[in-house]
Design a protein that fits this description.
The chain has 13 helices and nine strands. With 318 residues, the chain is an alpha/beta fold. β8, α12 and β9 form a beta-alpha-beta unit. The longest helix has 24 residues.
């Protein structure tokens, strides 16, 4: 209790918000979090408070619909996910149940509206959706709709599927595990072919070590050349589902790419850059000389079990 009294009396920023976080978790996890607090109280309060604050900042910006930076505006210092394994696991357990459904339907107007209506009637919230039209195979000419949704109050998935099957335009409905449970968090590597290959080497080897122990981390790469092409690819990372960190691997990057890096960081995705010519290293969260080590750092940061935290070495060069 002496720690709590000291923090309350000194008015440490964010401590009261952290207390509210304690009140939302169960007893077992509360013991783990309190142990972490007692072991390193200053770091714990700062990490938890800024992580909760970053969530609010991101939600506010999404409501505003503006993810661009004005001239001279500074980037938020912490806009990434909770990196403490204990805190991250507790927050994960507080989230609603995530489910996924794949639907084969006729390719016509109004199908998405009919599906969304049924989902809303079951008080489920669609959090991700992907649509495409088959151009080959047994469903050629038909539409595929894959979406993931949350059940906030323990809804009945079987009843939802049965009601979707009653829509005349729907031919098949099947439930699946969401992509987050299969492919997990994604490391995105963009840049020149040789450097991308070396970063991927480190990332894949490190991800293998974590996935063997039950985590799910996948590595996506694309070798590109040209400032405009790279800038478009970097900008698109903020729109990729489950993209958790970006690694830029190349010999020279700047101009439009640097501005795209700012927008990705503002969206809450940290950026690691290799040591290179150009202005991109000045805009990245971390600069790493060894490409293999850069891939390892990226995986360790998004891992829920690793202790490496990019927020604690932000702005440094290794």
């Amino acid at each position: 209790m002496c720690y709590f009294k000291r923090y309350i009396s000194e008015g440490i920023p964010g401590f009261r918000e952290c207390i509210n976080f304690f009140l939302c978790i169960d007893i077992e996890n509360c013991r783990k979090v309190i142990f972490t607090f007692l072991y390193c109280p200053e770091w714990f309060v700062k990490t938890l408070y800024l992580s909760l604050k970053s969530r609010n900042i991101r939600e506010h910006k999404e409501l505003q619909g503006d993810n661009s930076l004005a001239a001279g505006q500074e980037l938020p210092k912490l806009l990434t996910r909770v990196r403490s394994p204990v805190i991250a696991s507790v927050l994960h357990k507080m989230e609603p149940e995530r489910c996924a459904i794949r639907i084969i339907a006729e390719n016509r107007k109004g199908v998405l509206r009919d599906i969304a209506t049924i989902v809303a009637e079951h008080e489920a919230n669609i959090v991700m959706i992907n649509q495409e039209v088959f151009d080959s195979g047994p469903f050629c000419g038909m539409a595929e709709l894959y979406f993931e949704y949350d059940f906030n109050n323990g809804g009945d998935r079987e009843t939802l599927i049965a009601d979707l099957c009653h829509i005349p335009s729907i031919k098949d409905v099947r439930a699946y595990q969401p992509f987050g449970h299969i492919f997990g968090s994604r490391v995105i590597i963009i840049g020149g072919g040789a450097q991308v290959a070396q970063v991927a080497l480190g990332a894949v080897n490190e991800a293998d070590r974590h996935n063997i122990r039950g985590e799910r981390i996948s590595v996506d790469t694309i070798p590109l050349v040209g400032e405009r092409t790279l800038a478009l690819a970097v900008d698109a990372v903020a729109r990729l589902p489950r993209a958790s960190i970006l690694v830029l691997a190349g010999s020279i990057m700047g101009g439009e790419i640097s501005r795209a890096v700012d927008r990705v960081r503002e969206a809450g995705i940290p950026v690691i850059a290799l040591k290179m010519a150009g202005t991109v290293p000045e805009h990245a969260d971390l600069v790493v000389t060894d490409p293999i080590q850069a891939g390892i750092f990226a995986v360790m940061h998004i891992s829920s079990k690793a202790v490496f935290d990019i927020n604690r070495v932000r702005g440094r060069e290794f």
